[in-house]
Amino acid sequence: MLTLFSTKIKCLYRDRQSLFWALLFPIFLAIIYHYAFADLGKTDMLKTINIAAISTGSSNEATLKQTLQDVTFENGLPIFSVAFVDQAEAEQLLDNNKVTGYIVMGEMPELVVKDSDIKATIAKNVLNSYMQMYGVADIITKEIQGESINYNAVMEDMVDREYYLKNRNEASGTNMDYTVIYFYALLAMVCIYGGNWGLREGADISASLSTRGARVNIAPYSMAKLLFCNLSASLALHFTGVLLVIAFMSNILKIDFGTQLPYVIFVCFVGSIIGILFGCLIALLMKGTEKKKDAFLTCITLIWGFLAGLMIPSVKYIVSSKFPALTIVNPVHLITDCLYSLYYYSDLSKYAYNMIILSIIAAILSCMIIMYMRRGKHGSY
């Protein structure tokens, strides 16, 4: 068996095309992802927004002025740089694109913008938040009677919030970057791409699928032993590629895989097994040419990746909430869920749940391959 294993490793190593798609292409794709998405989660990309404010002499505008000057992003950067001007100057600043918009500070403040961009949306959300507090303060001052309540004092107290919840990143020191979703989905796809290796091994072992399979079947070896050695060799080479991709992402691209790297490696190992077994099963069960089977495998793998959020992360949430049954039969989704749970949670219960399902899928695929081989009645099985 060791001779069969080592010989197969040499054969696979000489297949430069398969090595490229298994090792170099995922690294190339990870680099593209890095430059395309790496800065999306950085708060230092936020910039202060220039706006103008027009005074109308309202009794409540002092609190709004203070709010506009004090409100900040999470990193402490001021959201607004406010210029207090008259109506004509505000309109001129807006026409010349010097400000994103201007606020008319009346009893009911109004925001005037020129374009509906991200800066205008931020300004609108801040003003809406202020108006909600304004309504609550108005209700408090009207309903509480018999006491002298200063409206502006109530508003200032509501603006000065205190938070009694602590963020996970503050507690653990881990920088929570949602862009890792893309890289986790990519890593899951790399694992499942082992199906291309399994597809070839399935064709090479069956006499009815290829001329090489016909020659192999007359060899004085057990077909079960030969298939096991071939799949093990494919797994060893493919999983080595997965480890190289993990090392490249972690050390070169600085992708955060959390503090439990052995669990990450283990789920990738199981994912590689599933990919290779799935490809082998398609080769044995599906009728047609090798190109047709390869196209079918590629389509299924891409669909799994799409549903797991590889192209659009929100798709993963939609599938989980609307069609939860699809998540159980999608190994890419299960692998990404394992990676998410290791990154976001200290509890391993969700990780263990997904690993159990992945193990069941691997066992089912193995049983189906064994049943096909027995049904084929190979003389040397």
Mind explaining what this structure looks like?
- The protein starts with a helix and ends in a 6-residue tail after the last helix.
- The protein is mainly α.
- It is elongated, with a radius of gyration of 30 Å.
- The protein has a four-stranded mixed β-sheet, with helices on both faces.
- The model is unreliable at 162-175 and 377-381 (pLDDT under 50).
- The chain contains 17 helices and four strands.
- A hairpin with a 4-residue loop joins strand 3 and strand 4.
- Helix 9 (195-205) runs antiparallel to helix 13 and helix 12 (261-285) runs parallel beside helix 17 (349-375).
- The protein folds into two domains: 2-39 and 178-375, no CATH class; 45-172, D-Maltodextrin-Binding Protein, domain 2.
Distance between the termini: 15 Å
Tell me, rounded to a whole number, the average pLDDT. 80
Instruction: Say what oligomer this is.
Output: single chain
Low-confidence stretches: 162-175, 377-381
Work out the radius of gyration: 30 Å
Number of strands: 4
Question: What general form does the structure show?
Answer: elongated
Which helices and strands appear, and what pairs or packs with what?
Layout: H1 2-13, H2 16-37, E1 49-55, H3 61-70, E2 80-85, H4 87-95, E3 101-105, E4 110-113, H5 118-143, H6 151-159, H7 168-172, H8 180-192, H9 195-205, H10 211-217, H11 223-252, H12 261-285, H13 290-307, H14 313-322, H15 324-328, H16 331-344, H17 349-375
Parallel strand pairs: 1-2, 1-3
Antiparallel strand pairs: 3-4
